[in-house]
Amino acid sequence: MLKFIFWSLVAINAALFAYGKGYLGHFSGNEREPERLLNQLNADKLAIVSADKANDASAATAAAASAAASAKPAPEVLACVEIGSFVLADARRFETQLAPLNLGDRQSRHNLPGNEVSSYIVYMPPQGSKEGADKKAGELRALGVTNYFIMNDNSPLRWGISLGVFKTESAAQNQLAILMKQGVRTARVAPRMSGSKLLAFQFRDVDTELKAKLEQFRTGYPNAESHACK
Q: What is the reported pTM?
C-alpha cells in the first residue's frame, strides 16, 4: 500500500513538472500549441504570405523560365538557292570551288531555258521525291495509263511525270483530253523552251553558313545572280 502511494506521488509530481514547463499546454484554451513554439529559432522572422503574393511569385518564376527558353537560338531555316547564269567554262570553275563542300545530291546543274518554244509537254507536277513519283505512277497504272516517264533529271520538273511530248499545242491538248477521260485529274500542258548554252546551279537544304560560302564564291562571277527556288 505504501509503495502504491509513493509511486502515485512521483507520477503527480512529474505531471506537475511537465505542466509547469509548458509541455502539456495550458488548460485555459487560449493557446493551441505547447510552449515549445516559443523556443523556435528565428521565430520573429517568420511571416504569413497572402495568396495573391504567392501567385505573383509563382507567375514571376514561370515568366523567368519562359524567358530562359525563348533565349535559345532559333533553328536555322533551310532553303533552296539557285545561282546562274554561267557559260560552260565558268560553270566548270565554279564546280571546282564547290567540290570541297561535298554537297552530293544537294547540288545540281541544269541548262537555263532559251527564248523559243520547241515543243509542248503533257505532264503531272513534281511529286517531291522518287517515292512520291513512284506512288503517282502506280495510280496512273491503276487507271490504265502505261505511256509515262518519271523525270529524274536536274530540271525544275524533277520527280514530275511526263505523259507525252508533242510538236504542237493542239496535239498536247488532245492527249490531255484523252487522259482526263481515263480519270487523270492533275495533268497539265506546258511549253518546252529550247535549251540555251547558259547553265545554273541549284542547292537544297541551304543553311546560313552554306549560303554565306556560296555568296562568297558567286562574287567572282559578275554575270551570276542568286535567287530562291522551290
A: 0.45
Q: Which grid coordinates belong to 16?
A: 506537475
- At 223, phi and psi to the nearest 5? -90, 0
Is residue 108 within 8 Å of 201, Cβ to Cβ? yes
Torsion of CA 31, 36, 39, 40, to 10 degrees: -90
Size (the chain), residues: 230
- 28-63 pLDDT, tens per residue? 544 455 555 555 555 555 556 565 665 665 656 666
Distance CA 13, CA 35 (A): 19
Say if residues 155 and 121 touch (Cβ distance below 8 Å).
Answer: no
> Which one-letter amino acid corresponds to residue 164?
G
Quickly list H helices, the chain: 2-21, 51-70, 88-98, 130-142, 169-181, 208-218
State the DSSP H helix or E strand holding residue 49, giving kind and residue range, or none if neither: none
- Number of Cβ within 10 Å of residue 82's Cβ equals 19
Give bridge partners of residue 120 from the DSSP assignment: 166, 191
User: CB burial class (10 A; 0-12, 13-18, 19+) of residue 53?
Assistant: exposed
Joined together, the cell numbers standing for residue 141 give: 497504272
Q: Which pLDDT tens digit goes with each residue over 181-222?
A: 999 999 999 999 887 889 999 999 999 999 999 999 999 999
- Cell reading at 155: 530540271
| Set of cell numbers at residue 111 | 541548262
Triad 49, 51, 54: Cα angle to 5°: 65
Measured in degrees and rounded to the nearest 5, phi and psi for residue 78 equal: -90, 140
